[in-house]
């Protein structure tokens, strides 16, 4: 699905969301909210999964998210898959139901055979369900949902000044555990310096909307083999952070390639040395 970003086109969405919040304050607001959430999810399911059945994930998929976010522009989300007798996960879809662009990111894994953990930070524009959908190797869709209270994350001003943003754009950092053992899964953190402008933020000097400019694709390779591919949109936070699972060898090189919505490409590589584990 291709999304066209126009900053002036988002203001009606925000107005409608605010009007909806006002209506929910009336008698029966909780029931109305539940109905609205269900209707919204039905629309998103049809849009992203073409009427395919989406099952409750049960213990096969878990998600951690704050009930009330401290910062709506930096909401931490952690999703983990669990091994199942006949279930392998090849992709995870992260959906922020009420955001202007609900599909925050899709994470695609190399083999899908091992349990995976993905952690990131997102923008939340209004009180919303956050939905994770796991796509299995045999075509099933498994869903888990958390409700997050936050608002204004998509229009929150950037934390860095524009000059620093330009100077650091595309720089990356890789954080590894203190102990890295060959042949055993580990969780690594990738940090990417990028403003991830949403198209809904004001320039603090001239009060014009800043055009959308965000990371749209991340490719992670280890010794030339795929580890993780990410397709993302405006709902990821400024300076995206991705925690992911990988299995290192005793020696190897991790290569990361990033592309943003303006067509800019960034690359970085890191050697990784692991203990033998013997």
Write up what this structure looks like.
The protein is mainly β and 278 residues long. It has a single domain, classed as Immunoglobulin-like. It is 15% helix and 37% strand. It has three helices and 15 strands. The chain has helices at 11-23, 29-49, 162-168, and strands at residues 55-56, 61-64, 75-81, 89-96, 103-109, 117-122, 128-136, 141-148, 172-175, 186-192, 215-222, 225-232, 241-246, 251-260, 265-273. The strands form two sheets. The chain has a nine-stranded mixed beta sheet, with no helix packed on it. The longest helix is centred in the N-terminal third of the chain and has 21 residues, at 29-49. The radius of gyration is 19 Å and the shape is globular. Residues 1-27 have low confidence and may be disordered.
Corresponding CATH architecture: Sandwich
Quote the distance from N terminus to C terminus.
47 Å
Assign the structural class, choosing from mainly alpha, mainly beta, alpha/beta, alpha+beta, or little secondary structure. Answer: mainly beta
Largest sheet: 9 strands, mixed
Given as residue ranges, the uncertain stretches (5+ residues, pLDDT < 50) are 1-27
The helix/strand order is HHEEEEEEEEHEEEEEEE
CATH H-level homologous superfamily name = SoxY domain
Strand arrangement, largest sheet?
A: 1-8-7-4-5-12-11-14-15
- Number of E-state strands: 15
Shape: globular
Could you report the average pLDDT, rounded to the nearest whole number?
87
Beta-sheet strand percentage? 35-45%
- Give Rg in angstroms: 19 Å
The level 1 CATH classification is: Mainly Beta
């Amino acid at each position: 699905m291709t999304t066209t970003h126009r900053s002036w086109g988002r203001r009606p969405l925000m107005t409608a969301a605010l009007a909806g919040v006002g209506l929910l304050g009336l008698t029966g607001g909780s029931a109305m909210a539940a109905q609205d959430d269900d209707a919204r999810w039905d629309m998103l399911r049809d849009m992203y999964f073409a009427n395919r059945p989406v099952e409750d994930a049960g213990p096969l998929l878990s998600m951690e998210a704050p009930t009330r976010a401290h910062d709506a522009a930096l909401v931490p989300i952690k999703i983990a898959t669990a091994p199942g007798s006949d279930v392998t996960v090849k992709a995870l879809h992260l959906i922020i139901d009420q955001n202007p662009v609900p599909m925050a990111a899709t994470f695609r894994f190399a083999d899908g055979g091992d349990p995976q953990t993905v952690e990131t930070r997102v923008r939340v524009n209004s009180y919303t369900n956050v939905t994770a959908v796991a796509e299995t190797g045999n075509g099933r869709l498994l869903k888990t949902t958390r409700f997050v209270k936050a608002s204004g994350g998509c229009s929150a001003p950037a934390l860095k000044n524009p000059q620093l943003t330009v100077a650091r754009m595309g720089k990356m950092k890789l954080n590894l555990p203190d102990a890295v053992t060959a042949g055993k899964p580990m969780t690594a953190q990738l940090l990417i310096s990028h403003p991830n402008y949403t198209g809904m933020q004001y320039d603090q000097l001239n009060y014009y909307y800043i055009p959308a400019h965000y990371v749209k694709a991340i490719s992670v390779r280890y010794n030339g083999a795929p580890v993780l591919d990410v397709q993302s949109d405006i709902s990821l936070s400024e300076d995206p952070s991705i925690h992911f699972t990988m299995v290192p060898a005793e020696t190897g090189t991790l290569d990361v390639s990033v592309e943003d919505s303006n067509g800019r490409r960034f690359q970085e590589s890191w050697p990784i040395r692991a203990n033998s584990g013997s």
